[in-house]
Amino acid sequence: MKPRDQFLTPDFIDAATGNKFDPPRAPVRFRTIWISDVHLGTTGCQAQRLLEFLRKTESETLYLVGDIIDGWQLKRRWYWQQAHNDVVQIVLKKAKKGTEVIFIPGNHDEAIREFIDLDFGGIRVRDELVHTTAQGKRMLVLHGDRFDGVIACAKWLAYVGDNLYSLILKFNQWFNVWRARAGLPYWSLSQYLKLKVKNAVSYISSFENALAAEARQRGLDGVICGHIHKPEIRDIDGILYCNDGDWVESLSALVEEPCGELRLVTWQEIVMSHTSAKHEKVNDLCVSPS
Ligand SMILES: [Mn+2]
To answer: What Pfam families does the database record attribute to this sequence (predicted)?
Structure first.
């Protein structure tokens, strides 16, 4: 059982049959939802969990902030599951039922960039746009790959967790025992990786700064993007930088509460709040303290 699966029990397991089931409950409502970096068409895509998220949430506007379908991977190897179809279906259904759906293509679904400014089945395809929150904040919405520039490095190293890190250290130990026997000098793999991680960290911060600078230059209050698979919401010198994360690892979305408050939610939170009374807390943010 993966750690995430603990959230599927016990509420989602039928005690008699052991089958998972979906108790019918009202979806959690937001003014706006932003998701990106779903990478449909890859084995890493957590389509099943995204489906669950989309079923349990509702919004006036849904932004698909790029890299929704991974055309690069699909060209290399065809991988398309039923759940990937279901994600497409549920988005189309939402559009049909009145959710305003806006698709901003990313670099992995750049083929769709040919259709910018066109509308399909209620889905508006745009390159970028400005979203105004209920609090009147003007936010630039775009995927973000344009700001990659010359910053290129092994960004996956930024996600190397503690476990993998200690495994690497152990490996390094054995590796150097072998090197010593072979008469070779000590070589620190962890030092090497740390350097790479440091590069990845500086890649992320320069990406974030570049996006914030763009919003500032345009006289906007903030920016909402995806692309680097790192959910974030923070102030960068007076500019609100928001990254909605991804559906490969972080399983996160950016949401706007009815009152205009922006925050990050995870798949776990939506599933948990859906199984308990916890989601009443969600809109507490909108009750201004007297
Ligand atoms: Mn991207």
So the answer is: Metallophos
